[in-house]
Sequence to fold (650 residues):
Amino acid sequence: MKNKTTLKLFSLLFFISFGLWSCVDNEDHGLPNLDLNCVSDDANETISPIQSLVKDFSGNHEITENVILSGYVVSSDEGGNFYQQIIIQDNKSPEFNGIEVSAAIKGYSDYFPIGARVKVFAKGLIIAKDRGVIKLGVKDSKFPVGRIPEKEVFNHLKFYCNKELETPAAKVYTDISKALQDGNVSTLIRLENVYFPAANGQQTFVPKGEKASNLSIKDENGNTLDLRNSSFVKWADNIVPRGKGSITLILSKYNDSYQAFINNLSDINIKDDPNFTAPTQTQDIKTLEAANANESDFKLNEKVKLHGFIKLINGKFSSIDFGDGTVIQIQAKKGLWNTLPKAFQDKINKEGQEVTITGTFSNYTLKDKKVVKAIFYEAESDVEFGDATAPSAPTNPAPTTPTTGEVLNASEVTSSVFKLDQPVRMKGAIKIINKKAHFILSDNTELQIYIPQFTATITNPEYRKKLDTDGQIVTVSGTFTEFNGKKQIKVVSQNDITFDTSATSTPAPAPNPNPTPNPTPNPPSTGGNTEKGSKTNPYSVAEAIAKQDKTKAWIKGFIVGDIKGNSTKDAEFNMKTWGSETNILIAASADETNIEKCLIVQLPTKKERDALSLKTKPENYKKEIKLHGSLEAYFKNPGLKGVKEFEFIN
Fold:
């Protein structure tokens, strides 16, 4: 049903209030002329196609085309929850989409109230995904998307003339788990037959002294969603209602976790009922025995009952291991941990403790931005401790350091060989990253060579020097471990390390008693030898990234992109038209789109540019090639410079 309030009336009220302010110096206030900001012509895009741009570009993308969007405002900053965030959805039920416009304007609801039909002139704006939410805004040095300056807001955002405010459509769900999908982010949804488990007649929306709160909403099946409230909301001190009803909210996301916001307290249609009893859960929760489970049993957003034994990651983080070695980190819902009794905390951090956890499978982003598999529990009652102990290790366990078995070549294997706590022997070229020795696997996975108490363990100074040398070939024996998401080989003895000394260990030939007075010089290399880095045995991209010592060598890889500007931030992949003639990116995989896994190749002259650049020869995209050049930094990243010779591989 349409709201009888009209934008025409709204404009009139605005000008009346503007007249009352006319005696004040408002030269710098930048107040818009609403007559000049209303439009009537049609838009040329809905929100969904522009969202797809984010999937096609890494980082942010400037919209250079004349893209005009049409939609309805569904957020309001009046209540204090949406500060300089204008949420717009295109209202084409049931498959409407939404987007967030980041704008440095306070009190935007005075100009663009809920239900106002608006047009967004997107040309010149930046679009990007910021912590899980697709946003429109401007370039910013600190964030993927910055706020549109106040004086520019009304150049990009205009409302339709003489249009009534409409009640925005909302998708309706009784099952919260079905509402939690990326296509619903930045749109209105209405959850029915839900309640607040924390409601007890005293709980407020934001506890005293807190900057914000996450208030759990629960459905009859036990699925939950956090309702996020800033301490600035007008209802912060209101008591959370007991009872069951409906809540209309805007779905959002923070990294991998869904959350939601309301515009005003009136969005909650639950009457307080002191006699309310939470419903008995009817959802059939799958029970998983960790020892019999494998990676395929991990399904995002699925609620399960997981039984197993606590294993500590690096003596610190609690986890449960599946039978195939898949590690599931155990996580308390945000804000819960500090409220749990110490006895509980001690038990869940005890190696070998039997435990059954009712929780939801989710991805969890660590501080270093690595993503791990996790199970999230929401209350102390979701965790049951048992009395059994973890199965004993075999009576004749494998030695800490394997002395037999296959030696894995780092440049030929992928991260799939990594099995936590499994013994391993590996050979490869050292790559120093943040002053630590690493192997680079063929899929560009960084595998740290971790040596506890380094100086005490490695007593030979020559060994220490070699372990700090880029490109040094070494074979290590150890155990796969992980710390804060960083994959490692843990090496506990100097005897578990051997260096490739083939270049120096071959004895010098005995003196020739009848030397030739004028020996014939060796012929120049034609590339037919089999030495590493030769044309017949080129370095892989991973090896080239590790060996940045200005060695002249042949490299093999696939052409996957280029850098169109002055920084690796300007890297481009999977383009219809390409922006650079002076460089290309090569990678181990033809489908690579991560600049960190690419070698940047300089094309120094017109000859190489005409033959290799994607701007000149777009058909070279995804072709396999060998190139000869100097392994040295380019764009401050691993590179290949001075390329003069190259050969496509059929």
User: Anything to note?
Assistant: The first strand starts at residue 38 and ends at 39.
